[in-house]
Specification:
Quinone Oxidoreductase, Chain A, domain 1; 9 helices; globular; 345 residues; seven-stranded mixed sheet; alpha/beta; Rossmann fold; oxidoreductase activity; six-stranded parallel sheet; binds NADP nicotinamide-adenine-dinucleotide phosphate
């Protein structure tokens, strides 16, 4: 191990957000926790910023939307969070590719229930899940990227792994985008604002659906048309779409089937509750989803797209790590524009 600041791995203390029970944002406490010990294959990162994602509040609350048999059994206290940007401060003996002092970002150990532990001053990560952060943006911007942009990328461009898909028996396959018409629902949110940009980059015409407050943002990100869902029901006015990427998803995602061409595809980013399989088969539409997975190689590729200006990162709001509770309260209000990020002093 190189340049390790503490000789008693796991015994020195850091500040972290921990919870000792499932529940509302009040269960989040800023307190001391052991600095995580470094395992083979890992780097330890001094965290500068942490991106906030829906799985953070799902886990905080015990994944109540899942059937009881799927709800995670965790050992309290747990530390939420997956997405970080920071500086490498230790590298395991067997680990190559990173050095102390590198500025990096990562989506840490996802999917896992409570093993990522990113709401903290230090986090350990398998080196294969780490990449040098984009140089053109700061740690706040970089921490906003991993889960949302990897999700958009793995749905639209490259799945990036051969693990079985927990959400369907067949492999998710991205579809060609050049010259196609893509409808993006939830276009101003964390995943949605990246989906809009990737679709434009790949040559698609983009119809963005969001609340009216998102119009300027998503048009600036490249959307060709905008539908304010608070005034107009998208499926009443659009048809012959090639691909719908529904970043809201859930039980209502099937309403988009009738907007699609025969041969088109519906990608619900949040697939639980979809019940239109027979209708999709009758209409000749592919419905497919995947679960985002950590991938350092893809993050390195995405850093290049951020640095060359192809992809912009939008920040909704920032909160100090100590105020993670307030960040979760902000998230619960909805209408997120881009990403919520925690900052670490
Ligand atoms: N499959 C995976 O591996 C994976 C990975 C990441 C995320 N997800 C899931 O994807 C979903 C989106 O995640 P996210 O991080 O993008 O969330 P987010 O940042 O909260 O974005 C959701 C967006 O949807 C918009 N919205 C809400 N209701 C809407 C409606 N009825 N019609 C159209 N837009 C609506 C919201 O703003 P406005 O209401 O102002 O438009 C918001 O911008 C979550 O359910 C998350 O769990 C899945």
């Amino acid at each position: 191990m190189k340049n390790t600041p503490n000789k008693n791995d796991g015994k020195l203390l850091m500040k972290a957000i921990r919870q000792h029970e499932f529940g509302s944002p009040e269960v989040l406490h800023y307190e001391e926790a052991p600095i995580p010990g470094l395992e083979q294959g890992e780097v330890r990162i001094r965290v500068h910023a942490i991106g906030v994602n829906p799985p953070d509040w799902y886990l905080r609350d015990g994944y109540k939307m899942l059937p009881p048999e799927w709800q995670p059994a965790v050992s309290f206290p747990i530390i939420l969070g997956t997405d970080i940007s920071g500086v490498v401060e230790a590298v395991a003996d067997d680990t190559k590719g990173f050095s102390v002092g590198d500025e990096v970002y990562s989506m840490v150990r996802f999917p896992s229930y409570g093993e990522s532990k990113a709401y903290a001053e230090y986090v350990t990560v398998p080196a294969s899940q780490v990449a040098l952060k984009p140089v053109s943006i700061d740690h706040v911007g970089a921490a906003a990227v991993p889960m949302s942009l990897l999700t958009a990328w793995q749905f639209m461009i490259e799945v990036g792994h051969d693990e079985p898909n927990p959400l369907q028996p067949y492999k998710h396959e991205p579809v060609p985008l050049d010259g196609k018409t893509v409808l993006v629902n939830g276009a101003g949110g964390g995943v949605g604002h990246f989906v809009v940009q990737l679709a434009k980059w790949k040559g698609a015409r983009v119809i963005a659906v969001a609340s009216g407050k998102q119009e300027t943002l998503v048009r600036n990100l490249g959307a060709d048309e905008f539908i304010d869902y608070t005034r107009i029901t998208a499926e009443d006015v659009v048809h012959d779409i090639d691909l719908v990427i529904d970043s809201v998803g859930g039980p209502t995602t099937g309403r988009f089937l009738r907007t699609l061409k025969r041969g088109g595809a519906l990608f619900p980013i949040f697939p639980l509750g979809f019940s239109g399989t027979e209708e999709a088969e009758r209409l000749g539409i592919t419905v497919s989803e995947t679960q985002v997975r950590s991938n350092g190689r893809q993050l390195a590729e995405l850093a290049r797209l951020i640095d060359d200006g192809t992809i912009r990162v939008v920040i909704d709001s920032t909160f100090p790590l100590a105020d993670a509770r307030k960040a979760h309260e902000r998230a619960a209000l909805g209408h997120i524009q881009g990403k919520i990020v925690l900052t670490v002093a």
